[in-house]
Design brief:
Number of helices: 7
CATH class: Alpha Beta
Shape: globular
Number of domains: 1
CATH architecture: 3-Layer(aba) Sandwich
Number of strands: 9
Order of helices and strands: HHEHEHEEEEHEHEHE
Strand order of the largest sheet: 3-4-5-2-1-6-7-9-8
Radius of gyration: 16 Å
Length: about 220
């Protein structure tokens, strides 16, 4: 993950990867994801996704992590949320009621930073990473999560000759190779989603499959 790339993308407004809608897979499979109503939900590389507000409306405690301080500040400002700022190790903390975002490098996270999170919603984290960083990410998730934790993971499959990521294509075979040692993997949905991603269509994609997987930590 090129930090300068993401920093410049947010600063220049090149955020075609950002989606304003609440993801249909989150709404459809939330009941499969949660373990208990009191469990916090971890959202890696959260950007300023409105999915966090939807999770909050489900009475979930939400913990995001995001590298871009501009994305974090935009999220709270655009949603008119009063925010308290503090410091937690290498992270700057942004807190509003039961929603918190840690601004910093995801790979600096430690177990204590996640407050025993057992639920993860990954809409845009794995697919933001180039191939050489994905195994590190998979190992990082495994190291942070206790046995029984659940991950709702959204991924894409498309012709990579038509478009360079991000978001990157992560095929089901690669996903299995990355996670099968530490997680059980269940395919929940596999759907044509090109019409839901007009920005990617304009970038040249002629076909896009969007997948949802449920991962359970062994």
């Amino acid at each position: 993950m090129d930090k300068n790339f993401w920093k410049e993308s947010w600063e220049q407004g090149n955020i075609g990867f950002y989606q304003k809608n609440i993801h249909r897979y989150l709404q459809r499979f939330y009941s499969r994801l949660v373990i208990a109503d009191s469990d916090p939900v971890f959202v890696p590389l959260c950007g300023k996704t409105l999915d966090m507000l939807w999770l909050q409306q489900q009475r979930a405690v939400v913990l995001g992590v995001e590298f871009s301080s501009l994305a974090v500040q935009d999220f709270f400002a655009e949603n008119d949320l009063a925010v308290f700022r503090g410091q937690q190790g290498r992270f700057e903390r942004y807190i509003s009621d039961n929603l918190e975002i840690l601004c910093g490098d995801l790979f600096d996270l430690k177990q204590q930073d996640l407050f025993d999170c057992r639920v993860v919603y990954d809409r845009a984290s794995l697919v933001a990473l180039p191939p050489e960083m994905r195994r590190r990410y998979a190992l990082k998730l495994a190291s942070l999560l206790p046995s029984g934790s659940r991950v709702l993971l959204v991924s894409y499959d498309y012709n990579q000759r038509e478009m360079a990521g991000p978001p990157f294509a992560v095929l089901k075979e690669e996903l299995k190779d990355l996670f099968a040692v530490d997680f059980t993997i269940e395919l929940l949905a596999e759907e044509d989603a090109l019409e839901n991603h007009q920005v990617l269509k304009k970038r040249g994609l002629t076909q896009l499959t969007e997948n949802a997987h449920l991962l359970i930590r062994k």
